[in-house]
């Protein structure tokens, strides 16, 4: 049986996302959608509010909390440039989308589409804390961590994570016992926090098939990549699997003038050997 063609992508964003984590893969899908116009791909940005989301540590408009930057950036004593910045605007919120999903109101013809693929980028925002007026702290991505297990039963095809997006997914427990890779630079701390994942830190990208999910897991493929630019590799591999084969991905990479090395699933990344192998 040929793999099902995923159409609807739900992309989660949070303050402090790494722009290339999502921009690289999304531009690959931009090219694919131009080359395959009959494949009616859709993209929905989702976050905890509808306020524009900054790539730097800037609280939302009228937010009652601030960021604990000293802990996140000890080498600069919390000093962070926030003037060179990019914003993305969500299409919906976690609460709105989940309510529609649970009510059976997601529709291919409606504003809120069914979710074929949940895409989770990384970035320093995945590890920074929010400081509330009473002094308490919560994870900047806690709303996303809470949302993922609730929406997981509604995901039709796959979850894709880039960089520390794997860390976010791991915190939900949905990666327990499954293979995944993650940002090589932050590997040791992430493994320490999520020891039940079968981490493969040498890999450029990993596809954990639905059959690898345990009794408490989600029966969809989980595609994960190493840091930042590796998101383009896992996306090209995903396209190879779902949208017409290797030649399709090669043509997309060619149009982007991306020097795709076609590293195989779970194979050792030469970048790992160069910088991290002991």
From TrEMBL:
Top-rank taxon: Eukaryota
Q: Where does the sequence pass through the membrane?
A: none
Q: What is this protein called?
A: DJ-1/PfpI domain-containing protein
- Per the UniProt entry, what species is this protein from, by scientific name? Exophiala mesophila
